[in-house]
Amino acid sequence: MSLENTFAVTIAFNERESETVHMVTQDGKEPTESEIRALMAPYVRQVYHESGGFEIEDITNVQESVDRLLAFSRH
User: Fold this and answer.
1) 38-71: burial string, b at 16+ Cβ within 10 Å, e else
2) By three-state DSSP, how is residue 63 classified?
3) Which of 3, 47, 51, 58 has CB 3.0 to 4.6 Å from 10, enough for a Cys bridge?
4) pTM of the predicted protein model
5) Phi and psi (nearest 5°) for 12?
6) How far apart, in whole angstroms, are the C-alpha atoms of residue 33 and residue 31?
7) Distance between CA 49 and CA 65 in Å, rounded?
């Protein structure tokens, strides 16, 4: 199974709360800030607070992360 087009995106709502969500892109490129905000703002409004505001803390390619972990575990 290829995860090349899947990205783990960590967003923070305040100093104490953050969440990691997964996004799939068609072209395998990292999602842009505007794509992340468009997708996540309605969710944040519904679950966390009305403003829908959040900070993007990290974007990680899932396939690369898994590959690094597997390479490390083989040593």
Assistant:
1) eebeeebeeebeeeeebeeeebebbbeeeeeeee
2) helix
3) 58
4) 0.84
5) -115, 135
6) 7
7) 31
